[in-house]
Design a protein that fits this description.
The chain has helices at 7-15, 151-159, 198-210, 223-231, 253-260, 298-316, 365-370; strands at residues 23-27, 41-42, 52-53, 57-60, 67-73, 87-91, 104-106, 111-113, 116-118, 129-130, 141-143, 164-168, 173-177, 182-183, 194-195, 214-215, 238-242, 263-267, 271-272, 278-284, 287-294, 327-331, 342-350, 353-356, 373-377, 389-394. With 398 residues, the protein is an alpha/beta fold. Strands 7-4-6-5-9-8 form a 6-stranded mixed β-sheet, with no helix packed on it. Strand 23 and strand 24 form a beta hairpin. Helix 3 (198-210) runs parallel beside helix 6 (298-316) and helix 4 (223-231) packs across helix 5 (253-260). The mean pLDDT is 93.
Amino acid sequence: MSGTLTLEEAQVRLLALAPETPSYSEDIGPVSRPRYLARDVEAKRSQPAADLSAMDGYALGAGPGPWKRIGESRAGHPFDKALGTGECVRISTGAHMPEGSDRVLIQEDADKEGEMISASQCPAPGRHVRKAGFDFRKGDRLLAKGTPIAPSVLALAAAAGHAALEWREPPSVAVLDSGDELVPVGQPCGPHQIFASNGIMLSSMLHPHVGSVDRLGPVGDDPVSLAEALRLAEDKQILVTSGGASVGDHDLVQQALKDWGARIDFWKVAVKPGKPIMVATRQAVDGTQVIVGLPGNPVSSFVTAFLFVLPLVRAAMGAADPLPQGLIMQAGEDLPPTGPRREFLRATHDAGTVRRTGSQDSSGLMALAQASCLIERPANAGPVEKGHPVTVHLLQNG
């Protein structure tokens, strides 16, 4: 175990532990959750495979015109003869350019008299023509391993001749929230207790990425209950805990994990909220389990899940760039200086401007629920004036 790590140090160390899930091939179709290519994708054909018209009009043969129309080329139904001097064919967008033609006169510029076509100005060679292979050529590497699967990626792979793609399975995940003060939702809750919301929140964050998430809590602060809950996670590749990971008299998760056979890799990261985050590993029958212990305060738990757990899941699924990506927006208000930790402020954004939402206390669920993004502020930074640029992470991007 080491001292307090920077955000970057902790993320690098955590992602290096990511389990590698098996890959499989699946027919191209609608994708219901995030996936990442398990191997590079090369083009099996050129696109387009032949010169095509980019506009509706007339494919012209040689000569300055006029040209005699001798046929038509439609998408999927090419004109099967060569054009001679002074000849043309009617052509539609996406249709095969006939032999003997390298330009298209668009229909708005064409003067028609019977079967004769003329123009005040002849288009230059190559005008309104999509050349064969301009998009990609057979053998080109189109998509790199680790690319996220988006609708446009599926379209590109299909256009390149792929009926199926290979990606990796999501890791198996369990979520355990602990604390004597936690009460399951729907049961009576006294003034000294709180409803167990973290497990619901974390499971909901993870579900779109991995599908089924096992919830193992809430569990009380006693070694026997924690040991029983941990046994239920024996076969999980990733275990996320919330609460009890600090070192107070009643914070028992670290010791319970050690008794279970886990080794603490690091504990404490210089971020606010969320400093007492813990990462551990455990050797199991099916490989190394990764345990991420999040703080119990709900905002701290959410922010550290955003910064660590979701990237870990994406890395396990083969994402080339699993970390959240920041955008630059303008501060919609003055922001105070920061302390010795990297800060992530709950905020909303509108038209490139970002403002904090309510209280920034690490237990403030109202401000978190209203937030659409996080403002990232460097450690030991001076104040930011309204209108100045700040780094922002959109929560919808995970």
